[in-house]
Amino acid sequence: MWIQTAGIRLDGDLTIPPAAPGLVVLTQDNPRDRAIAALLRERGLGTLLIEPLTPDEQAVEARRFDIDLVADRLIGTLRWLRAQPGIMELPIGLFGSGVNAAAAMVAAAARPGDVQAVVARGARADLAGGALAQLQAPTLLIVGELDPKLRALNEEAEQVMRAHGDVCVIPGADRYFSDPQALEQVAVAAGEWFTRHLSAPVPSHAKVIDSALPVEQTGLLDAFMPPSPTKDKDREEL
What are the pLDDT digits (tens) for 33-44? Predict the structure, then answer.
């Protein structure tokens, strides 16, 4: 199926089981994410696999690290979903890996009324910038035990987030979760997180940042204030 978003058409693979409690948008379409999507569907969740960059864009390193561009297309995808009969009522979660996980967190912070849960696998969470402190959706950061650098980045990000967050360390897993058993543990943790949080009420009166930003705005991340170094000590734990 084709999804019109932010001035281009993205190819999407949408599957919604009967009586699905929610829909998970996976922000890449690759063998690992397809395996995770299949396991999420076994739990009754709907899935939409998309690749937010065109093949030509994927070949350019600067585009692969363009958080504004990827997040903007994810926001456009959320807008498209909210206009589709039979889908618009479903709670939505975002699942992302690496750089795309950071873009998913930016998109979730920009559209808090549209995203009710986020799961990030091996996220470059540092690239989400000030959006981390603006996240309202409960966010699970999954990292591999054998990747201490990325684990430290995600633990720092979790300290910045004001939303309910957690860091899940998969024993024996490397950055890419090459072991099929490690990937299955990712899917189990993600499924439990989405099942728990996609039933939560949508935040009311949520501030929304739209996609297709005006030319004079230098970037989507500029809409967010830089994060504070630590969580507010007196914030309410969810």
Answer: 999 999 999 999
Which residue has 């299949």 as its token pair? 38
Per residue in 63-103, pLDDT (tens digit) is: 999 999 999 999 999 999 999 999 999 999 999 999 999 99
Cα distances (Å, whole numbers) of residue 161 to 73, 139, 237: 23, 9, 12
Residue 186, pLDDT > 50, answer yes
143, β-bridge pairs: 169
Distance from C-alpha of 144 to C-alpha of 120, rounded to nearest angstrom: 12
46-50 sheet: strands from edge to edge = 2-5, 8-15, 46-50, 23-26, 92-97, 117-121, 139-144, 165-170
% of the chain surpassing 70 pLDDT: 84
b/e per residue, 114-143, with b = 16+ CB within 10 A? bbbbbbbbbbbbebbbbbbbbbbbbbbbbb
Q: Please write down the HEC assignment for all residues of the chain.
A: CEEEECCEEEEEEEECCCCCCCEEEECCCCHHHHHHHHHHHHCCCEEEEECCCCHHHHCCHHHHCCHHHHHHHHHHHHHHHCCCCCCCCCCEEEEEEHHHHHHHHHHHHHCCCCCCEEEEECCCHHHHHHHHHHCCCCEEEEEECCCHHHHHHHHHHHHHCCCCEEEEEECCCCCCCCCHHHHHHHHHHHHHHHHHHCCCCCCCCCCCCCCCCCCCCCCHHHHCCCCCCCCCCCCCCC
Locate tokens 């993600």: which residue?
A: 190
